[in-house]
Amino acid sequence: MSRVSLEVNGASVDVEVQPNTLLVQLLREKLDLTGTHVGCDTSQCGACVVHVNGQSVKSCSVLAVELEGAKVTTIEGLAQGGELHPMQQAFHEEHGLQCGYCTPGVVMSTVDLLKRNESPTEGEVREWLEGNICRCTGYHNIVKAVLSCADKMKAGDASAAE
Amino acid sequence: MSNTGIGKRVKRKEDRRFLTGKGRYTDDINLPRQAFAHFVRSPHACAKINGIDASEALSQDGVLGVYTGADWVADQLGGLPCGWLVKSKNGADQVEPPHLPLAPEVARHVGDPVAVVIARTKELAKEAASMVEVDYDDMPASGTLAKAITPDAPQVWPDASGNVSFDWEVGDEAAQQAAFAEADRIVEIEVTNNRVIPNAMEPRAAVASYDPNADSYTLYTTSQNPHLIRLLLSAFVMQIPEHKLQVIAPDVGGGFGSKIYPYSEEVVCTWTSKKVGVPVKWTADRSEAFMSDAHGRGHITKAQMAVKNDGTMLAFRVETYADLGAYLSTFATATPTYLYAPLLCGIYKMKAVYANVKGIFTHTVPVDAYRGAGRPEATYLVERMVDKVAGELGIDRIELRRKNMIQKDEFPYQTPLIFQFDTGDFEACLDTALEAIDFAGFEARRAEAASRGMLRGIGVSTYVEACGLAPSAAAGALGARAGLYESAIIRVHPTGSVTVFTGTHSHGQGHETAFAQIVAEKLGMEVDNITVEHGDTEKISFGMGSYGSRSLAVGGSAISKATDKVIEKGRKIAAHLLEASADDIDFEGGEYKVKGTDKVLPFGAVAFTAYVPHNYPHEELEPGLEESAFYDPANFTFPGGCHITEVEIDPETGVVKVVDVAAADDIGTVINPMIVDGQVHGGLVQGIGQALYEEAVYDDDGQLKSGTYMNYTMPRAADFPMFKVGFHVTACTHNPLGSKGVGEVGSIGVPPSVINAVLDALKPTGVTDISMPATAQKVWRAIQEAKAAQAAE
Question: Sign of torsion, CA B406 B407 B413 B414?
C-alpha cells in the first residue's frame, strides 16, 4: 500500500492505495464519486474522462500513486455553487445526452477542448471526440451542444470584457 | 393550458442528475458487507466438462464460495426460458434445449459460464477464479452460421438435427408460385445480414441480496424490464415467489435490446447471495460483455422476386438461415420469424410472399433482438432487392418504388403476411427525403466528386416496421408466452401534484419527461408538477418494460387511459361541489367548468377535496384520487418512411465516407420533437455502424475475433455529418395517443440506403455486390477484383 495526497474537486484527499489502483478505482470505489464511469477495458470508450491539473485524461489509464499533489476534477466538481457549467447547460439545452452513461466523460473531454480551442469547427469537435464513444445520441446533438457552448462562452467573455 | 404538454420541445427532467454525475446505475450501488462474483468462463466453443477442481480457490482467505453447474442441478432449479414458441412447418415445436445459468456438462460457446467464485473483494474473486481448474475435453464446434448449416457440421445439441431449432414458414406458397408463373422475370439475390454486438455503453451488472428474516431477495440489475426478470426468475428459474423478489432496474446506460433478457449472471448473484449470506455484486468488463451479451442479426438469405417488365412487383420468395447462438434467448425465435418475415412485403403491393426461415444453433453466444429486431433484416433484403430489380429492368429506382408502393388512400391495407397496416403515407415520406437531400442535384455532385477522383453515390431505402408490441391475443396466437400490454398508475396527491407509475423502463428514451408531457397536456398542468416512476417492482404493480418501440404506443396509452379515469372521477367530485350534473361539467385547461356558466373549479381544488372529503359525494365515490389502467393494444403500430444516404468512396483506399443522410419518418403523433430527433439520430448511427463498420466475427471454430473495442469498430463522431431528420405524420388509428413508435426506425431504415449508395458509387468500377459491413478493406478488394475481372475479359 502507498499513501497519496491529492485534491479532488477542491477537497484534500489523503488515502492508502495499492500500487496498481487506477484513478478511476480510487474515485469510484474509495471516494464514492460514481459519476465517472467505466465502459471498456481497453482505454477507448472515454466514459471515465476527468481532469488532472486542468487537462482531460482517461482515469482508467492513470495510476493513483502517480497523482501526489495533483488537482483532480470530476464531473461532480464541474458545476459551481449549484450552477451548471456552460457545457453541462449546453448538453441539457441541445439534448446532448440520452442514457447518460458516456455523458460525464464526454462533458469533461469537451470542456478541455474549449480550453484549447475556443471556437472549434464542427469537424474539429468531431475529431476531438475520437476518444469518446456514445451509443445513444448518434453524436449529432453532442456536437451541437459543444458548438453552442463555444458560442455562448465567447459571447459571455465578450460581454464580460465590455 | 399546458406549456409543457404534447408536441413541445420540453428539456429533459432527467438530465441534471446525469450531467452532474448523480445518476445511479447498478454498479454505483454498494450494499453493506457485499461480496463480489467473478465467473469462470469457457475458453472453448464446445467442450465437455469432465470435472472442476476449486480446492485452491476455496483455500484462499476471503473466498466465500465456488459454485458450479452441478450445484445448480443439485438445487433442482430451472433454466433460462425462451419467451416464444415457434412451430416448424411440419407442426413440431422448436427444439428448445435447457439453458442452465452455469453449464453443468458441456460448455457451448466461448464465454459460457461454468463456475462462479464469490469473494470479499473484486480483485480476490478474479484471482481465485484463475485458480479454478476445469478439466475440459475440447470438441469440434460450429463457430459460424455458414459452417453450422453444412452437412457434416458439428452438432450443438443432440436433438437438433442439422443444428435446426425450427424450420418455419409463412405465406401462401401456392399463390407465390402462381405469381411466379405469371412473371416476365425472376430477379435473384443473396445477402447476409451481419451479426453485430449491441454495446450499450454501460456493461451489464447485478447486485443481489437475501434477507433471511423475510426470506426475500432484492436484485438490482441492468434491465430494460424488471418485472419480466422477476416473472421469469419466479416462474421458471428459481421458483422464488414474486412477492419475495424485488427487482430494481435503476438508471440503465442503454439497452438496445441486449438488456431485455434474463442472464446467467444476475440469476447466479441472486442464488449465491443466500448461500454466502451477504450481498453479491457482479459487473461485466467490456470483454466479458462481448462474449456474454446477446448479439443481434446474423442471417444468410436467398430470395427471388417475380416482376413484370413494366416494373410491377408480383411476388417474393425468401429462404433465410438465422443464427440463434448456442441457447434460445428470450426473443431469439420470435425475432427471425414473426418480427422479420411479415415485413418482407416492405411498403409494396405484392400479391404473394412466401418465406421459409430455419433457426440454426451455432457454438456462439445467443443471438436475440437488437434495435429493430428482425425488421432491419427484412428491410435490408427488400430494399437491396428493389435496387437490383431496378437495375435489371432498367427502370429508375425511385419510379419503381413509387409504382409499387401502397398509396395513402389504400389504408387500412391488408398485407399477404398477417399484418394490416392502419395508416401511412409512404410517398410523402419519399418526397420529403428526396427534397431534403436534394436528390435532383445529385448528378452534379457526383460529377464534382469525380473531378476530384472520388466515387460518389446515393442510395434510397423505404421501410415499414411493426412495433408497439403487442396485442396480447394476436401475439399469443403467434407463439408469445406472455401478454404484451402495459400498466400505469396516476397518483394525484392532495395538493394536486402527480406521480406517474409506468411498467415501461427508460434507459435513455426520456420517459420521465415525455410521459409527464402526456399527463401535463391532459390535466392542464406543467411537467414540473409531475414525477414519473419506473424500474422497481415494489413501486410499480406490473409491466412489460421497454423494447420493440412499445413504451409510448403501449405504455403511454396506459398512462393516457389512467389519466382519463382521474379526470372522470374528478368530474364527479366537481359536479358535487359545483352543484351540477357531471354531464354538464367540462374539463379544460386544468379546470372543471359548468357548461355555459362562469362556475369553475381548478383541478387542484378537486384533488384536495378527494383527500379532505368533508363536502363529498360519499354515497357515490370513494375518497382519494388515484387510478390505474392496463392497456392492451388493438393492433401493432406501423411506423414507416424513407432514408437516403449519400457517400463518397476513395477508390485508392476503399474508405467510404458518409457525406449526407436524410430521414423522413412517419412515427405517428410526436410527444416531444427534441427527444424524437435524438432517437432517430442514434438509430441512424447504429444502422450506419452495421452497414459500414460493425461485425461480430467468429472463426469457424467459434473463437470470437472481435472481442474488444480494439477490433470491433464502434461508430465515432468523425464518421458522420449532421443528419437531416424530418417527419410526415399520420396518426395511428387504434391507440389513444395516435403514436406509432420511434426507437428503432433509424436502425431499420438506413442500412440498405447505405449499401445501395455504396453500390451506386461503385457502379463505374463494375462492382455489383458488396456485403455489410462495407469496410474499406472489403470495398478496396471488390474494386481490385472487378478490375482484374475486366482485365481478364
Answer: negative
